[in-house]
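Most newcomers find our protein records easier to grasp once they have seen one. Nothing more is needed to start thinking about how sequence determines fold. Here is such a record, shown just as it appears in the course material:
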Amino acid sequence: MAAPAQSDMIRLSYEHRWLFAGKEIVHDYILHTSADKSMFYNPVAYQLDTNSKDEAARQAYGAMAAAMQASGRGAEVPNRSVSMYIAKSHTDGTKTVYDDFYDVFAYHDEPYDEMIWNIVSDSVRNILGYECIMAKSDYHGRHWTAWFSPEIPMSDGPWKLAGLPGLILEANEASGTHSFIATGIEHTTDPVPEMIVPEWYHKEDRKKYLKAKKKFIDNPIAHLFANIPPGCKVMGSDGTEIKRNDQVVTDDNYDLLETDYH
């Protein structure tokens, strides 16, 4: 792919790889970026949120999900468990982050200038056929190493990462728990997607939201029982009853992408 002009739009696919309870979990994301703005999102969540606006699409999804459940393939039903959106404005130098867990939907804004990069110009590698340069940054509690390509002069990257003189194609944080790796790149004439359902979200302090999210991840059953009337039974997908004191597999070493909320 030739270096893009300022008017070009680029769509990249990334894998977000993270370690939880001894297993590597991989989630897919798309970065759709242009000269003035971008959106980072999970394609399944985006499609489901788009379908939520259409009654026929909702009914079709419900029928498909019911059929898959009945055939024992309930775990394969598409869901929006990976539902973070990040909208960046390159002209304003701001990011708007939309995220949710359980029944909590929140968004917050933050500026680009919280991320300060140190470029290591003598460290280079090739990613997807592009020569990339190393850069490092301490950001919201983690130390990140990124690889960006000046051949693609767009100051953007996966997740919240941005601010370098070239597109970030790979980023790893120092503990090895989280990484973003580009798996494909293409020119596109499609417009950058807009946030489909902004009305679902309320404005929240970033650190307050992250504390609540981590608390939920550590003990989702407690959160569940705190939000249902006394005496109600909760059944698992296998038909067994979930008790208030049941525990789920957690990872004491796992933390969120940002850790400065502690």
Summary: The longest strand covers residues 9-20. The CA atoms of residues 91 and 212 lie 32 Å apart. Helices lie at 43-51, 55-70, 206-218, 220-226.
